[in-house]
Design goal:
Blueprint (H helix, E strand, L loop, with lengths): L21 H14 L26 E6 L4 E4 L5 E6 L3 E8 L7 E3 L5 E4 L8 E9 L5 E10 L6 E2 L1 E3 L6 E2 L5 E5 L8 H6 L1 E6 L4 E7 L2 E6 L8 E6 L11 E2 L3 E7 L3 E6 L4 E6 L2 E7 L10 E6 L2 E9 L1 H8 L2 E9 L6 E4 L17 E3 L1 H10 L5 E5 L3 E2 L13 H5 L33
Parallel strand pairs: 2-8, 9-17, 11-18, 19-27, 22-28, 25-26
Antiparallel strand pairs: 1-3, 3-6, 4-7, 5-6, 7-8, 10-12, 12-15, 13-16, 14-15, 16-18, 19-20, 20-21, 22-27, 23-24, 24-25
């Protein structure tokens, strides 16, 4: 991570942010009496706290704004306000534009910085004020004025795979994509600006699958009927080589019922559970020995009521085929699906004859298609081939420890019960109703 004018607000681990205002400010302000830096006065880039009291004693507390530096220009529009305090029991931060209008924002989890709710306007002057109050009740105030940079020519678009108000399955990862690769040493910066709020709260983390894509999943499957809001504050954020984030992004989605499919190659059967209860057992035929199905946990990527499987170009005229398919549900980029296969109904439940797909009857294919949704998980067990990570949304095919390694920030487990931080959105100590496959 880079330091300087674009010093970023530390927001803690992914999944622990949110839109807390009054409660967060009170909790963090109290904590800052124990964690604040021991700095008073001096030239640290912002004007130190001032006091005018005539014959009264000087305030016990003090504050200094460290970023942006006083009278700084060309400041990124993503800037936060970083500061140090001494002997402060309460701290308040205010940011105003040139017209005196207040900018909404919140204290960061570390209690040493403040972040606006959105990117600042380009080419505008702002004034930051930090007020620290000690146990003597006397406020000490530090101010710093700065001017944001002109709008940059090189901007990176940030997009979400999911749209507002979508309802998805309990294994659905949150997927954020960038229109240009984010250099590795800038990923921690953007990840600090990415927050997930889940109700009920659940522990989770961001995982970079490539320089242009980062995903979020909870430790175990989402709880059924969870509401999820995720945010990326990328507007004006430096992302390397003179590129900046184009805009902020906020998405609200809902997790549907828990609909989990498990296929056992030994029995040639699929067990379907809904909200933890077995509701159906389905006969299947998996991939034959020359084209085995993949063992692992996959996720329904897309649903196609009717489609055509065409492997003529891939396999040639002798092995290839062109077949009309009903009730197809994609599981891998390599072409594994759940789908209706009336031609193999005689072998379903006893013999594997497919080219790697999960074959079911027409009736069962129609039933599954009517009940599943994108993001529902399916785990296949006992075949000759293991699922290749990256071949589909294989986030659940990684253990939690492996998934955490994909974060650009050190992972911090949620606080234990009884700790104030345990109530933060995006974390919980309660296990999901679904086990991690």
């Amino acid at each position: 991570m880079r330091a300087g004018q674009d010093e970023l607000t530390r927001r803690g681990t992914a999944g622990r942010g949110g839109r807390r205002r009054v409660v967060a400010a009170v909790v963090l302000a109290a904590a800052m009496a124990l964690t604040s830096a021991c700095t008073s006065g001096g030239d640290n880039g912002g004007k130190p706290s001032s006091w005018q009291g005539g014959g009264e004693s000087k305030p016990k507390a003090s504050a200094t704004i460290t970023e942006p530096k006083a009278d700084a220009g060309d400041v990124p529009a993503s800037t936060g306000i970083t500061f140090t305090t001494k002997d402060a029991q309460e701290t308040a931060v205010e940011l105003t534009d040139a017209a005196g209008k207040k900018v909404d924002g919140e204290l960061a989890a570390d209690g040493k910085s403040w972040l606006p709710d959105g990117a600042l306007e380009y080419g505008q002057k702002y004034t930051a004020t930090v007020t620290a109050t000690g146990d003597d009740g006397k406020p000490a105030t530090a101010t710093s004025s700065f001017t944001t940079m002109a709008q940059p020519a090189k901007q990176i678009r940030v997009s979400s795979f999911l749209g507002d108000n979508q309802v998805v399955g309990v294994a659905m990862p949150l997927i954020i994509r960038f229109s240009r690769a984010v250099p590795e040493d800038y990923r921690d910066d953007i990840q600090r600006r990415m927050t997930v709020t889940a109700k009920p709260a659940q522990e989770g983390v961001w995982h970079w699958v490539s320089p242009t894509e980062v995903r979020y999943r909870p430790k175990t499957f989402w709880k059924a009927n969870t509401t999820v809001s995720y945010r990326v504050q990328a507007g004006g954020l430096p992302l390397g080589d003179g590129w900046y984030g184009r805009s902020d992004l906020t998405v609200d989605v809902k997790i549907g019922p828990s609909f989990v499919m498990t296929v056992d190659n030994r029995t040639k059967r699929m067990t379907v559970t809904k909200d933890g209860r077995v509701i159906k057992t389905i006969l299947v035929s998996l991939g034959k020995k020359t084209t085995p199905s993949s063992s692992g946990t996959m996720v329904v990527i897309e649903k196609l009521r009717k489609t055509v499987f065409d492997t003529m170009e891939e396999l040639g005229p002798e092995e290839g085929y062109r077949t009309k398919i009903d009730y197809a549900q994609r599981l891998t980029w390599g072409g594994e699906f759940i789908h209706a296969a009336p031609w193999s109904e005689g072998q379903q439940g006893s013999v594997n004859v497919s080219h790697g797909c999960v074959n079911v009857s027409m009736a069962d294919g129609a039933w599954l298609f009517a009940n599943t949704r994108m993001g529902d998980p399916i785990t296949v067990k006992g075949t000759e081939r293991k699922l290749q990570n990256g071949n589909g949304w294989t986030d659940w095919n990684l253990s939690w420890d492996e998934y955490v390694k994909g974060s650009a920030l050190p992972y911090e487990p949620p606080a234990q019960p009884g700790d104030d931080a345990s109530a933060e959105p995006g974390t919980t100590d309660e296990p999901s109703t679904e086990p991690t496959p």
